[in-house]
Structure formats: C-alpha cells, structure tokens
Amino acid sequence: MTPSSSSSHVERGMLRELAWLFLRLGGTSFGGPAAHIAMMEEEVVHRRAWLSRQEFLDLLSATNLIPGPSSTELAIHIGHRRAGWPGLLVAGVCFIVPAVLIVTVLAWIYVRFGTLPAAARILLGIKPVIIAIVLQALWGLGRTALKSLSLIVVGILSLGVTLLGVHELLVLLGAGLLMVVVHAIRSPTGTDSTASALLLFASPAALHSTLTPLAVGATPFGLCSLLLFFLKVGSVLFGSGYVLLAFLRADLVERFHWLTEAQLLDAIAVGQFTPGPVFTTATFIGFLLNGMTGALVATIGIFLPAFVFVAISSPLIPLLRSSRLASAMLDGVNVASLALMLATTCHLGRSAISGGWTLGLTILSLLVLIRLQTNSAWLVLGGALLGLLCS
Known about the structure:
The chain is an all-alpha fold and 391 residues long. Helix content is 81%, strand content 0%. It has helices spanning 3-28, 33-47, 53-64, 70-113, 120-145, 149-163, 168-186, 194-211, 223-236, 241-255, 261-273, 281-313, 316-322, 324-352, 356-371, 376-390. Helix 2 (33-47) crosses helix 5 (120-145) and helix 11 (261-273) crosses helix 12. The termini are far apart.
C-alpha cells in the first residue's frame, strides 16, 4: 500500500468514526445544548481521547462567542479538529440530520392530525438523567478550567450575574476582559496579540448590529423570503431556545403573519423535546409553511451560518491560545461558559426534579456515570422507559 493510499484509508476511517458518533448523538442527545455539550465531552475527551479537556474548553468558548446553535457549532469544531474540512461537514451534518428527520415526521403528524404526540411522560424520565450528565461534565471541566484563584472568582461572578439575568454574551465578554485586565496587571509588558483578542470579542457584536436590520419590514411568504429569514436568524441569534422563541414571535407572528401564536409555541415545543439541536424548530416551521420543500429550505437557512462561522474561527483558536494575553482571555471565557452551563442546569433542575423518584433517578444516574462510566445514551434511553412506566 502506498503512503497516499494509506493516508486516504485513515482519513476515511476518521470520517466514519465521526459520522457514527454524531449520528448517534444527534438521535439520542435530549436536553438542549448543555446536555449535548456534556455528552460530547464524555465521548471525545474521556472515551476516545480525541481532545484534551483544555482543547475541548477552548472549542466550547469559541462556540459561545459566535452566533448560532452552540452545540451544533461545537460538533462542527470537533469534526474540523479531528478530520479537517471534510470532518467539519461530516460531524455537523450528521449531528443535525437525525433531529431533522424526527422533527419532519412530527410536523407531518401535526399537519395531518392537528396535534402533537404526547411526550410529557418520556420527558419526565429523561430530564433527571440529563441533569446528572451535565453535572458530571461540569465537575470534570471545572477541575481543568478553575486553575487559579482569579479564575474561581471570575467563575463565581459569572454565575451570579447570569442568575440575575444578564445576557449570555455580556457575561462571556466581561469574564474574558476581566482576565485580560488581571493578566495585564500581573505582566504589564505582556500585551501581545491584543488586537487578536479584541477582534474575537468584537466580531460577534459587530455582526449582530450589521445583520439585525434585515428583520425590519413585512415580507410576503415565499421560499426565498423563508431562506433569507432563517439565514438571518442563524447569523445573529445568541442565547437559548427562549431567545429563539422571542425572535421568531416578533417576525413570524407579529410582523409577517406567517404563523399563529399556537403554531409557533408548538414548533418551539417540538424543538425542545426532540433530541439534537433546538434549532430544528425551523424545520417544523418550514414544513408548516410549505411542506417538505419548506422544511429543507428553513433547515439549510438556519444551520448554514454555523458552518461558515466555525470555518472562519476554528483556525484562529490555536493562535489565540499561543498568545499569553489571548490565552488569559480564553481562560476567562472558559469559566464563564461553565457558569452559563451551571445556571442553565439550575433552571432545568427546578422543572426536572419534581418529586422523590425524579430526585432518586438523578442521584442514581450520577452514581452510575461516576462509578461505572456507562455511556450516557443508554442512561437517556433508560430514563425515557422509566418515564413511560412510572407516570
């Protein structure tokens, strides 16, 4: 076998590994971005050792600093780091496709019968397991990220302001800039790569202010309008699924009148209780508006910017880490990212742990993860089965 054919064989093997992993995660990762991130950390750091914890944290921070679906962008980053540009496409597409197929089926049922299949019982068992998965990931990542007293203080401050309702991007920006100040005080001459650090922070805000005006003005429905709308959403949206709800309501219900309030709430609910990216809400909306073609157009529109942003930002991460000042900034963003995950887990925990058996399931899941290192996908499926049996 020639060296070139051997290299090609290795690359195909990497792509198959990526495809299988993210197809499985896309079909079993319930619970939103925090849960997706925890499951990816388990797979690519612990089980496969594709990345160190520090590398994983750096990629997580990079996704939090750009618009779009954070867990999908993290999958795309991992694919690029593992297998270059083909890996970027394979990981991202494979993470998205299972959720898109599931949501499309649910959209067809909704259009056909006018209602959604009952999912409350399944979610009752899945949510406590998700809390345990995220807590385990936070413990492992926190031991890597919180490596100095200043970072611990920044993490506590980030958690506090997040719980008070400060916007996620402001928390990340503040934490990074605070660590830049700490580094500058400790090493007054070490101000290398300041422009690179500030550019990474400034670009999302500038992009947001540039593209947000595209939302203005009522638009008659058409496939081109649908594509442009979801391209805009995928290009400027920071935050959780609740931010997505507010964004979609302002345009699709109040300004464009493409959907009713009830239809939009049902679309958001589907994105929340199905596995994979929450942004598959767009798939559901597209199907309601124009069938399979609309679903495809909306899906491409909302996810395409994520691939572009990651392709631009991914090569910059090692350069930023090699700079002392930019490295301090990334350390601050890392602990702020974990604070955001912990705050999200606190909010989820209030609804997920609603009684004695759900609390017991959370504790049992956490013990199984720590002691037996069981694959989290099996725990999620087990939780779904318990939810069906116990409710």
